[in-house]
Amino acid sequence: MTRLILASGSGIRRQILENAGVTLSVQTSGVDEEAIKAEWSAMPPSGLAVMLAEAKAKAVPAPDDALVLGADQILGLEGRMYDKAWTKDEARARLQSLRGKTHILHSGLAAVRKGETIWTHAEDSHLSVRDFSDTFLDHYMNIAGAELTASVGAYAFEGMGAQLFEKINGDYYAILGLPLLPVLDLLRREGVIPA
Fold it and tell me: Which of the residues are catalytic?
């Protein structure tokens, strides 16, 4: 069997794969995401998410028999792209800007073997945030904790963050940052898991 290395420090991405019965190791890449985003700022968000995923996967040193999977996610709202919030105040402002609107989560994946990209995947999810009250926002901010700065939308959709939404159009796993079914298909074809 081929080894899988996940080039992401995301706990939820790792959990998604492990829950699906995939054995893996994690090795973060340390790439300068901001430099890549600045250089390729004119690129559409989906393409940029794939490019970031590819850069992460290529930056991880790996043995020849390993497959390295990189992943990234960009939030798009009204023509702007957003990264993770750095502070609780920034997260509050992000959630306020999302309130009552529909945003897009652009998920990008790339698989690398022997330093060469062998597969990429992009998937968009459209999420409509309900017009929640300031009372709910205060309640959510008090409970969410680290979730506020751990994801690009300042919410963990798999937890209490689901209460922020009125409608979604997209794959659940893609919203969490790792479109699972395309990844499982790749892993079967590449001998990481049994076909």
Answer: 72
